[in-house]
Design brief:
Blueprint lengths: L1 H20 L3 H6 L1 H17 L5 H8 L4 H10 L4 H31 L1
Helix pairs in contact: 1-3, 1-4, 3-5
């Protein structure tokens, strides 16, 4: 059962990869998030397939396109990564503003 699962998602992945690579450079660039996510999903499923129970494997094998289904469901979830990046940028900008204000105060005192 595991072999069938691995074969199925490998064929799905290789088919997806060939379709993506047939696009123009611009089309590929515009799909970079999708590509990265699909690669990660493929790798995770290959790894997790080792320990999945038979009933889970059977359910997955009944899906028409496992990787595409996982990707579409993933897109429906809130992505905290952007929020974390935004928080980081905001914190860094505040820090730089404080540094700049301190530098300006110190240069005024020195005059």
């Amino acid at each position: 059962m595991k072999e069938r699962f691995w074969n199925k998602i490998t064929v799905e992945y290789l088919t997806y990869k060939a379709a993506v690579l047939s696009g123009t450079n611009g089309e590929i660039y515009n799909r970079c998030y999708e590509i990265d996510t699909m690669v990660n999903l493929y790798e995770l499923l290959m790894e997790k397939g080792e320990t999945l129970p038979e009933v889970c494997l059977e359910g997955l094998l009944q899906q028409k396109n496992i990787l595409r289904n996982f990707y579409e469901e993933w897109l429906k979830r809130d992505d905290k990564c952007y929020q974390e990046l935004e928080n980081y940028v905001t914190d860094e900008l505040r820090y730089l503003e404080v540094q700049q204000n301190d530098t300006e105060r110190n240069s005024t005192v020195a005059c």
